[in-house]
Structures are given as structure tokens and as C-alpha cells.
Amino acid sequence: MNYRAHDLKREDFAPLEKSQLDEVVARPSLSYWQDAWRRFKQNTRAIISMYILIALAVFTLGGPLLWTVDASKQNLNQTSQPPGLAKHALVVSAFERWVLPTDPSRPEYGDLPPEELANPEGLRAAEAPNTQSVRITWRPVAEAGGYNIYRHTRPPTSLQDLGLPLGSIETGNVHGYEDRLNLKQEDYFYSVVTTDGFDEAETYATLQLRPQLAITREHALEQGLSEDPRAGDTVTLAFYPLGTDYLGRDMLARLMEGARVSLFIGVIAPLAFVIFGVAYGGFSGYIGGTIDNILMRLADFVVALPFLLFMILFKIAFGIGPGESGVIPMLVALVLLSWPATARLVRGQVLQIREQGYIDAARLMGASNHYLIARHILPNTMGVVLVTFTFAVPMAIFAEAFLSFIGMGVAPPTPSWGSMCNEGVKTMLSHPHELILPAALISITVLAFNLFGDGLTEALDARMRGRE
Amino acid sequence: MSIRNVISFLGQQRLWAFFCLIIPIVSQAAVNGETRTITISLTEEPPQLNSMKATDQVSIFVLGHLMEGLVRYDRRGRLVPGVAKSWDVQDLDYTFQLRDDARWSDGKPVTAHDFVFSWRNALDPGTASEYAFILYAVKNGEAINKGERPITDLGIHALDDHTLVVTLERPTAYFLKLCAFASYLPVQEDMVRAKGDRYAADAGDFLMNGPFKLEDWVHGASLRMIKNEHYWDRDNIFLNEINADYITSDTRARLNLFLDDKIAYTSLDGDTYKDALANQLRIRSFITGSVFFLEYNHRDGRLTSNLNLRRAIQYAYDADEMVNKVLATPGNLPGISVFPVWLDGVEGKFRDEYPAPKAERNIVRAREYLARAKEELGGDIPPLILLVGDSPTASKQAEYIQGELLNNLGLDIRIDKQIFKQRLAKMTSGDFDIVGAGWGPDFDDIMTFGDLFASWNLNNRGRYNNPDYDQHVRTAMNSVDTLTRMEAMANAQQILFDDAVVLPQYEQGVIYLLHPKLRGVVRRVTGVDPDFTRARILP
Amino acid sequence: MFRYIAKRLLAGVITIWFIATATFFAMHAVPGDPLMNDRAVSDEVRRNLEARYGLDKPLGEQYIIFISNMLRGDFGISFTQQNRRVNDIIREHFPVSAILGILAIIIAALGGILWGALTALYRNRLPDILIMLLVILGISVPGFVFAATGQLALVHVNAIFGVKVLPVAGWGTFSHMLMPALVLGLGTMALLTRLMRTSMIDVMGEDYIRTAHAKGLSKQRIFLRHQLRNAILPVVTVLGPQISAITTGGFVVEYVFAIPGLGRYFVQAVQQLDYTVIMGTTVFYGAFLVLMVILVDILYGFIDPRVRVSA
Fold it and tell me: Residue B127's domain spans which residues?
């Protein structure tokens, strides 16, 4: 149609009757949330995050159905074992203390100064060495007042480098030593140094040997490795695909069991206090004035309270007995003490947003406070809120670990990722898998929530609607 | 300002000193043979350098280098004259002759009055010294500390400036050993009067009479001890300076400092020793003298007051496995007795002369005891509460025990982890079944462990009460005859085993690194440890 | 403005009073007390100790004594560091924590703003993804690991160069501060990076940015004058509490690097139930936090004149 000014008649200015037909929407109408959902589904990051979250859920809930090993079952034969295939071990009979070989014809002490003492000759293993015990013996040295025994994992280079001091024998006529200290199937270099009872000679003798991985008959029976194990048989040891921890507990089972607590606390606690913080901060910032002032001073108050002290207090107030799981009280306590950071951040954002042109415009068009907050202000703070949420996830996981240390989180032997991490830290160089595995799972969880947050931000951001 | 100016401005130490309010330390090597200086680290700031009130290891370590009592220990652990050059004993009276050349760090002589003042003051109720009990050996000590007698009634008198007479409350075989303890150190009265509450609060706030004096103390950061030129035996002191430049309890940090040649000594743990081995460092081990055990609650109505239950646990537990597989660092010994291996007996070591009875793990026997316990207690055993501290080691051990007892006996153990003071509160009120405990010796005599489970001892947290045991303790306390005392203690050791009063876990050992050029550093189970006072640096 | 600050300060004093009161009663409600020790003491000794520290009085009286001493600026004598006044502990150790914290915050803020802006500009491309992964690693691994690793790195660097490039631990000069400050600032830097990224992306979609482009302003000018300035508000918001959190929460770094800061005194005080030190440090940190929050609120107005906090 083509209008010309002179064609206009007075009737043309009369309002039309209200009719649905005037505006034909060719495509289905999308509400804000529908549109957000559509864009969320198209976001690669969001899709990846969904897959990771599903995988974590399967690991946590489905995993224990497939891998039914008891997470708190200790196996002192296989402590701190790195991830790997199942191992074979020799069955040995129950341990009996070795009566150290003694030469009664010799004196217990001599008169020679330490630097003149000879080297122990004929250092050898008294029996085939296995991981239950290593027995070494040597020919007694004349005038010796004792011996010091060392163990190394590589050939010693000097007197300064003999390895671990296993122990001392304080009489010169005893010429054997039994080592049972945390034996593994690896090469050991045993060194023996003669002493006068106090000070060491200046030479040493070294013996290399490799203990055979062994398990006692009783343990083999108890673990069901064999029907009727006899000393000398070879059995296949319990299989730990991801290795074991410092008490020989299965890492895989512990990670799966720990996931329940860590994911629960790591998701629910941040969710709860972020939501509370958003409501609190949003309200405070939007209302402004004296109420804002009072509310924010309350936030300052909560932040300034000593965290540990109040956690102990909460623990007593909730009456958590020994060995009881305090997950729910811990959740409450975490939420009570952690919301102010989000509240403050949201309030800052709201202060900025409420002065924006589009808020004034909406208000002029008669938008109510509810509408303004729900439709314009909160969605625009979402980006920042989601960042605090994703940061709160590991924080809550570690807070749980810290609190179980003061007896408030989960009760031992129930594991959690955070406490597994804290324990792994102590042996991070010697048994890195005890730190890396739980830390990796926490990282993956945090990654998933970060990707999820990014995807959600982009989906919720109204400004993105026109630019795709 | 140009960039270069900014950098040089920022590089000025004075500027940072101003900001930090901390005097910059001049970074030095771990040992320096030319200046005869060594640098070490402390695990924490010494909480109390007032010898009348010091109770903790770090303070006693520092005081051991700064002060000297009537007697001291030499490198072989023998008592040798300190401020006292000689003494003689008649019944309950000890007469000490003090040396004329013993001097305070301000050059004034150390007199008998300094000991009189110090001992009286430590027992004065107003001083509120936690370790006052260790002076109860002196006549009227306990009564004075309770406020029942004036402090002038204490059995210590200065006949003249260099003659000190001490009267004991009762025969005390180990009194001379007590004299090496921190609470028995002399204190100069004028200084205490002048400084009041600030006494020993800073380097300038107290006087020292030992091999070193405290030159400089930056709280939380460093202590500098320099050779005391007034010390009577100064010719035998090699070191000019001991700098405690770092205060951290983190083992890994200290190993890093050692590797960087910044400190001359550090202890290691289960993870760090592997780094030390990788760096070809010589590791040494040492028994600290402390014994760790699980203490049962013997109060009426507690499950653990049942002997058969305790015996079941005794036979289900394997101290060897604990030490070799759980602690897994060298130096620790399996716990067999409450009396550690290093205690002196009649002629040799107590444990050689009176071997401790040992329960080898025997699950069958343990289950028999458990069955009897169940019968006596009427059915299944409800969960037992194991009270432990919040340290990583404590928690690891507790989990091991929990697993073992569940596996071997089907006992349900609930671990109650508590922070230090809350744990003490529960220990005091008896709110536990089993508690992880340990005991370190105060002095070098069997009695420091012997009276631990006497009914009157407040450290007997499980309130074990056995008149027979008490009798043996009394016999040992009131006798000066070594054989009588050791026989009595051997009987006590047997009772502790038969009654399964406690479950010994391990005797603590430490592994540590020492700078290869350093010689003459002494480790000992009581008192100053490690002792650097007579250390030398090889050229 | 002065009126506003005065009002805020008054509100701050009331907040601190609340903090002090809550902490005081919480501390006494917790089982155990500072006088308990590994070695049990007899009732007599205990009574002597209680009398010395005034713990024999009823709780209400103790509270009144505490408040009146606090008003005079006196927090009493520490229970664990028995010859030191709490005031001295704060005076000597707070500056250490503060300077370390400020350095850490500077490192964190500069790094956070830089990385954050970078990730926003290279959104969904390699730099963005790489930095995000680093951030995630940074917050998913216990802080102790970074402290220990940073220190070990220094040992190796010093060994390789044969000279002491940076000290491994200790305190005193600027060189002592660099590694601890970096380690301490990592967590905050990670948070600021992510906040800055989000905030930048928000700003980049704004009309005024489009207008600026249309006007033909240079990219740098738009970036500095418009994007950065508008995006920085959330960063400033968290900065206030983060300064306070970093100066209190630096105890792991303080332990590892043997730094005489207030953080470890504070943590130790709670574990030891050192009443006087708990009160002194809590009140002091509370006051510090209140001041930082006021500062940040005032800064809001300067950074974004549209924001009216004193409305």
C-alpha cells in the first residue's frame, strides 16, 4: 500500500478495533526463558558441561553398583600403591620374630676407636627376602661395639649417603638385623656400618636385594584370594585400578563414595547461599537508604566473625556426637556464614544497574518493583552471580574437608574429595596419585560448573538475543 | 621518577624496614666456620622465656642455651657440675657449693640468693606457674604453692653467696636430675623487680647465666643468641652465634631451607625424607623419649572398665604393624610398655633388666576375650568412642585402629575428632571410651612415667584406680634404693599389662638432618634438645 | 560527603560492638578454656591461674571488664605468649600481614584485570580457554600445594643459578615478599579474572560501546575509557572484603614462608582458645573490614558517578 498525504481522511485516525490478526507472527513466539533455553542448548560449552555433569552423576550413583569394593576396607599389604594392574604375591606363613644371630664367644664392646674398626664382611640375606621381612646377617667385626643399619633405594655414593637409618644394634656380638619397615617390591641397598657403641667407623658394606612381594596365608584366606593357600604358592593380589591410599584402601571406591559428600556439599551449599545472597543483596541494593545501610552492616558483622570458632559453636549447638555425620548442620552453618560475599557483590551490581537508562524507561512505562527486579535487574547480575557460584563450589568442598578435621563434616572412615586432597598433600611428592586423583575430580567438577555458568550467562543475557 | 629510580627506591632495605616494622635479617649461610655462626629454625615462637613459668619444648630449648642450673647434662647424658661446682648430701639435706666465676650476662656473680628467689617465686601462688609441682620435692613446696605457708618456709637457704642448702620434703632419688630442669634455674631478683610483668618478654628484659645470651628477639621472626662472654666455661664454647632466623612448623618449608643452605638442622617426616634421600643427605634418627598409647576410660559404668574387653583389644592389636606400615618412618619403636627403652634401671637399662610382657597379636584369643566381655556386659557391645586430636597423624592412626578393631573383632569404633582445648575438656570430664594420649618425660628418671596411672595423678585421664599399683608407686617414690625402686616399677609394669590399663602404641622417634660440618650437637630425651651449646664447625 | 563518612563510621562502631559481643560469648560457650594444657594442673594451680587472668569472676563481669578495657584500647595479656600484650602482638604483626596482603592484592588485581580483559577480548578462543583451565586448576587444588611448589621452585632456581636469586623463606626485605605475595594472590587473581571476564562481556554489549565505535574512537581508547572503567565495579566490590580476607587468611603462606604475620597468631589463638588474642584480633580485623567496606563504597562513586550509595 502506498499512502499519500492528501489521501488521508479523518477516519484514518480513529483507533482500530483490537484484533489479533493485525500482527501475524510467522514463527512461534518465544518467551524470554524459552529463548534462553534455546540458546543454552546451542552453546557448545553448555553442552560439554552437561555431559561432564552427567558423567559425574553416573560415577557417583552408578559407579558403586559396578565397582563394589568396600571403600573403608584397609589392606596393610598394599598401602599407597600407585594405579596399575593386579600384582602377584608369594604366600608366606605367619610372621615369627627372628632371633638375631649372636656370637656369645665375642665381647659386647671393644676398645678400638671407631676409625680403626673394620668393615662387616660377608653381608648377605639370611633368608629369601620378601615384603614381610628382610633378614640380613654378616660376620661379626672384631672389637665392634655395635652396628648401624641403613637402607637406600639406589647405590650409596658415600658415608653421607647411606639412606634411611633403620636402626642400631648396640652390642658388637649380634650380627644380624631384621627389617620390616614399609617394605615394597623394589631394589634396596642395605648398608652396615660398624660402631664402637657410639660413633661410626669410616667404611661401610652394602648389599643389594629385592624383596619378593608376599602375603601371609591368613591374609590371603581372609581376602579370599585363594581357597587353600599354602606357603610358596603364588596368588593374585586384590586389584586396585586407581591404586590405594595410605591405609591400603581402594582409591576408586573412595573417590566414588567421596563424590557423594563432596558433590552434595559442593553444589547444595553454594546454591543455597548464593540464592540467599542474591535475594539479600538485590533487595538491599534496590531499596537503598537506611535499610540498605543496616542490611549491609549485618553482612559486615557476619563476615567479621571468626569462622572456626563459630563452626565449633555450631557443632555443639547442633549436638553432633562422635562419629556422627554432620553434613546437614554443616550445610546450615556454611550457608549462615558464607552468604555475605555474594550479597555484597549483587548489591554493588544492583546499585549500578538501577541507574541505567532502561530501568528508568521501564519504570516510566509503569513497571512494578517486582517486575523490575525479576526481569531487569537480577538477570543482569547473573553473570557475576554465576562466577561467585562456580568459585563457591571448590570452596565448599574444601570447607567440608576442613570441618571434618574438627569433627564436623563426615565421620571417618567415610571419605570426601576434599579430605582425600588434604591427606594427599602430605605425600604429594612420594605418592602423587593420592593428591592428583581427588584434585582432578574437583577440577573436573569446577570445570563443568564454569562451562555451565558461561553457557547460562550467554543464554540469559538479553543483549545477546540479536547477535548470533 | 624514572623506572630505574623506582627500582632502586624499592630496593632500599631501610624503606622496607620502615614498612614492615621488622628489622631486616641479613640472609646468611646455615653454618659459617669463620664467624663461628650457625642458623637454625624454630617450630614456633618461644611462648615463655621466664624460666619459672616455662613449660613447653621450644621455650625450654631456648632457655637451655641461655641459662645454666646447678647441674647440667653432658653429651653422654651424665650429670655434671653447672653453677654448683660440688655438692654433698646428708639425708634430706643437699649442700651445693657454687662456683665463684659463674656470672650473669651483666657481669654480676650468680649467687645462692638467685636460686632462693627463683624457687620461692616459682612456688608463689601469685606467680601461677603450671610447673610448680616439679618443685614439690623441696620441703614445704606443695604447702606454699597451695597458699598454706609463706614462701619463706621453703626448704632452701643461702648460707652465704656461694653456699646453698636445700632440704627435701621426702627422700627423692632423682633430685639432682630435677636440678637440671628449667623450673630450677636461677633468676636474678633485681631484674624481676624492675621488669615486673614484662620480665623475659624481650631480649633486654632478663639476664642470662648460660653459654649464650639473647642479643635480639624479633617476635614471630627470629632470635639471635650470641656467646656470653661472662659464662664461666666460655673457653669450651666454640660457637659465637646461634641464629634462629626462621619460625615455621612446616616440615617441607624447613627442608627447603635446609636444601637452600639456610638452616643447619631440620626434622623430617614420611614424605620429606624421600626428598632428603634424593638430595644425598645424611639422615639421622633419634628416640624422642615420648611414649604414645591409647588410654581407656576406667570410670564406673564405662564399657572400657571391663577387663575382658580391654584384653580383647590388647590381643587384636599389632604394634609392629602400626609402626612399620602406618607410621612407616624409621626411628619409631613398637609400643610394648609405658616405660620406654631408654630409662635407666639398676645397672643397665630398665627394659633390659625387666623385659616388658608383650601381647603378640592373636585374633583367636582376642575373640575369646571379646565373647567373655559380651557375656559380662550383656550382649553386643555398643559403639566405642575413640577421642583423638585434629592432627593428620592422629587421624591416620585412629582410622587404622578403627579398621583393625572392626575387622578383627567386629567392634564399632566412633572417632571423635576434637581441637586441642575441646579434646582436653573431654579428657578432663571423662567423655570418651578410649583416648589417644602420649607422655613425654619431664626428667630423666623412671618416676616421670611411673606415677602416671596412680589414682591421685591428674594426668591419669582414664581414672584408673588400683591400690596395688598405687602401693608400688609409693614404694618407688619414697625409696632412694635403686633396686627397691626398680623392683616396684617392674611390678607396676606387670600390672599395667595384666590389667590392660592402656594400649601402648609406639615410642616416638624422629629422623632429622644435620649440616655435615656441624659436630657435637647432642640429642637428648629430657631437657635441651637438640643441644647446640658445645657444637663445633669443621673447617 | 563528611556527613556520610561520619554516619558510616558510627554504624561501623556499632557493628564492631556487635562483633565483639557475639565473639566474646561464643568463645566462652565453647568447651575448654585457655588454661587447660596437655599436662593437667592441680586445683590450686588452676585457681592461681584463674585469679591471675580474672577468669574467676562471673561471665557478665568479665564482659564488662573486657568492654571497658577495649574502650581504652587495651586487650590484655595473651594466654599463649604469656609475656606479651595483645596490643603489641597486633602492632608488631599486623603490618607484616598488611604489606603482604596489599602486595598480594596488587598482584591479584593487576593480573585479574589483565587476564580477565584478555579472556573477554578473545572470548571462546584459545587464550580464553587456556586461562579458564588455569583458573580452575588454581581454585581446585589446596593452596598449600602452590605455596610448597613455589618454595620448591625457588630452591631449584637458587641451586641452578648458584646465587640466591630469591630467599626461600623468611621476612625482612622486598625480595622476601615476592613469592609469598604471588602465592597468596593466586586465588583472588583467579576470582578477579573470571569476574572481570563476565563483566567485560556484559559491557561490550552495551549501546555506548557501539556508539563509541560508531564515533570512530580508537580501540585502545574505547577499551581504556569505556570498557575497563565500566567493567571494573564488581572487581572493586570484592576487593574490599578480599583485602581483609587475604590479610587474615594468609596463615598457610605465613607458615610455609616463615613470615611473622598476624594470620597465624589468629588461627592459633582460636585453636588454643587464647581468649584475649581472639578478642583483640577479631575486633581489630572487624574494624579493618569495616574501613575497607567504607572505602569501597566511596570508591564506587568515583568509578561510576551514576552509583549513589549515600542515597
Answer: 11-250+515-537
